[in-house]
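Bench log. Compound arrived from synthesis this morning; before running ITC I wanted a structural hypothesis for how 1,3-dihydroxyacetonephosphate sits in the protein. Inputs:
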Amino acid sequence: MNTQLLIDTANKLVADDKGLLAMDESNPTCNKRFAKLNIPQTVEARRAYRELIVTTPGLGECISGVILYDETIRQQKKDGTPFLKVLTDAGIIPGIKVDAGAKDLAAHPGEKITEGLDGLRDRLAEYFQMGALFAKWRAVIAIGVGIPSRSCIEANAHALARYAALCQEAGLVPVVEPEVLMDGDHTLEQCRAATEEVLRTVFNQLNSQRVMLEGMILKPNMVLPGLTCSTQESVDEVADTTMKSLWRTVPAAVPAIAFLSGGQSAELASARLNTMNHRFKTQLPWALAFSFARAIQQPALEIWRGEEANVTPAQQALLHRARCNRAARRGEYTVAMEKT
Ligand code: 13P
């Protein structure tokens, strides 16, 4: 295992208050988001959209790494330049989603298990050879009546740990993403309890699979009330509860925590990350960063709508969100930034 490469990559991914941009939606997920905006669900439309993202002028000022999907990592700009070259020329580290998606967990109604371990060693070797330096695997945990079950948490944590060990063997930094979903009417307290149990189990499994904590990044959910919960706590309460849960469960050897956005509005995701950094940054053992998909991309996608004429304003909206989140890493984001 190339320990130094892993440590260097993990640290580069959170240097200079930058963060990650997830643009690794699988084809079905990308198509679903396109369909809502009447964008054609074709390979060419997905390629054109990803070209818009990777060619955004100035993106590398705020984004250290992007997470690609298997289709995207092999694509090129219209002029033939590979996306991988465009990214590395902009100083952005390419990463890759390597899980094969969350499938129904047998005998566990309402729960999922992420698949993709079979053949993973060979796929990782190919991606590393192409130039990817980090990889992502997402596990999803739902909150509901009687769930999450212990067995669902354990199965997903075990898969995450086996994926992470394989990544490190191949020279890729694992971005370990156990996502407790926002869907439902559960309370902030229920999300806190589930998140802490999940993170404890994940770190137990990472230790037992001998994953080097200094060469990984944790990508967790923020601790939030369910989307349809009648009580929606303030930004300060969310920041306090999230920090408490992370302090209790994430070892100090982990260099960085990069949150997913999970369906929060772009502004709230920035405001919550900002408050955590503003209030706690000097007391934290890890960098507190972002690895957002929707909270960076959604405004840009809604402007683009598949129209060539909208590329420049869409890129401006994408860069704006990236800048807001970089400011949030410094604890310097303000609502006034949204008006600029
Ligand atoms: P969201 O920020 O939209 O939750 O996506 C993050 C991600 O990478 C999901 O796997």
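What the model suggests: The two ends are 46 Å apart (CA to CA). The longest helix spans residues 150-170.
ITC booked for Thursday regardless.
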